[in-house]
Request: fold
Amino acid sequence: MAGKTLFDKVWQAHEVCRNDEGQSLLWVDRHLAHEGSFHAFNKLAERDMPVRHPECTIGIADHYVPTNARNLIAVQPKVRSVIEQLVDNTRKHGVELIGLDDPRQGIVHVVGPEQGITQPGLLMVCGDSHTSTHGALGALAFGIGASEVAHVLATQTLWQTKPKRMRITIDGQLAPGVSAKDIALAWISRLGADGARGYAIEYAGSVIRGLSVEARLTLCNLSIEGGGRCGMIAPDEKTIEYVRGRPYAPKGEALAQAEAYWRTLFTDEDAQFDREVALRGEDIAPIVTWGVSPEEALPIDSMVPDPANETSPSKARQIRDSLDYMGLKPGQKLEDVTVDRVFIGSCTNARLEDLRAAASVLRGKNCRVPGIVSPGSTLVKAKAEAEGLDRVFVDAGLEWRESGCSMCVGMNGDLVASGERCASTTNRNFKGRQGPGARTHLMSPAMVAAAALTGHLTDIRALRG
Amino acid sequence: MEPMNQFSAVALPLPLENVDTDQLIPARFMKEPRKPNGYGAFLLHDMRFDSSGEPLDFMLNRPEAASSEVLVARRNFGAGSSREAAVYALVDHGFRCVIAPSFGDIFASNSVNNGLLPALVSEQDCERLLEAMAEQPATITIDLQNQCISLGEQTVSFDINPTWKLKLLNGWDDIDLTLARTPEIEQFRTNYKNRYPWLG
Ligand code: SF4
Reply:
């Protein structure tokens, strides 16, 4: 019998049954609910249904929370109403809430791993596409829509068609200045923003094993930007060490049992993947996006593409459209692109290591452009402050804010103005993502810090050099 | 949900790649309640209106758009966030089908859960349809049972996940189907707790 992949093992452990068309009904271990879940709770209310297993859902306020204060005093009434609906819905159904004023509050995909809610081998869902993040610990985790959230609330299960399996192997070594963000943008720019559509991704290889757990979270977070259903990394000793002792992690005898199981979660040597992709660590440079899709990304030492060099007319039109929105000239050097502001935050790059990476570039220097730093969680904020990172950012001229999704999506009002260009550690450079008419360039925290210092897109390697 | 089978309607060409969910409904509209007005007015809002709210020269602003039920777009339609509001915006505007060579995964399942057919065609067939439309609205016929699309002389076939097809054809709702399996789920749960006691 052929061996199994990590993904197959976790999938199989959760399969309740299959229907005649081959879809599987999966048991859901953990469901995370943010403010956007009001549509799903409304669907339950329409049918007058209870939450079947309230102990399996945790509410976390992140998308709409203000980052300049921890209260709702100055918050716009409609934004406030969305936050309050999460409070009401969780209270009504007996669901635990990590609310605005909770010391554990933060972005759902930062809080999950941080609190030990995320564990190897779990099946986790959330009404948010970046749920793929949690796969970094060996969980099977993916984003779902509001109807599916309602289904999970009502039944603690979910119907899914089994995706195909893709392995992205990265061997070799990363050059200095290259991070997990660059690995992700490298494969997405190569395969396309729908390159992994229909696949469950497993990241493997020596580079991946060498990544810290936090860097792995960044990499898996971006799986969805390449269209992947989920991204997973087999748990190893680093993973187990990371989970152990966290508030929601198993303890004592249960921990020993759990650890024994977690160590079985790897891809068997003779297991088959539907697609294999290989990259060399040495070949990956610091990358920035130039367009309006994460696939429109290039190494920082390149030039903005010229549609005149494109043979396909539709591709050329696409490039022209992106350049037009981004206000860029064909053939312009990426390093010559000036920025108006920076943002360091989001579930992609706002964990402690990310803040340290940015702070190490900024320490003792002055930024040319304004910007805000929003830690991934309130706990990350406290830890960063204990290390004095907040002073580094503030002394360099950036604003040190509270935790939330903030300028990643602007739902709380933290927006990039129309026509402004922002160097951002976030995950989406879509048109209007950071505000109507906003121009977003995605890159790693160190690269954002470098751009903040020089006022233009900057090769971190040269700055360090 | 209404069952769907064969229907003819006005189709609009939207010959763009990567029409992501942030474009389908910009985030700032998502704090609005869906009732009573629906999300139709927010659909592709920033492509339809300039910053002062003036309508732009865009397909969705044409008079034919009011009665159109089908969109034909390029690859990676609905990529991005899991916001089901993107589907609500399409459905509330009156759309019943989007034709494209690829869809964001979560968008596609959200579509089916709201009675919107994500009809997957090959890149070539998509270009044929767009060419036949010549940047104009056109009448199109969608036959879900036989998985084919006709537009003038052109007939192309489309792909759809078999469970999704069944759900759309019958107007089924997942929650009812799943609740019928409650004993099976409870049995699973008992075994599961025995195997993974630290999760119980
Ligand atoms: S930080 Fe951005 S990508 Fe992450 S959950 Fe919040 S809005 Fe979504």
Observations:
- Residues 77-93 of chain A form the longest helix (17 residues).
- The pocket of iron/sulfur cluster is lined by residues A 62-63, 107, 109, 128, 130, 346-347, 405, 408-409, 427 (CB under 6 Å).
- The longest strand of chain A covers residues 164-171.
- The mean pLDDT of chain A is 97.
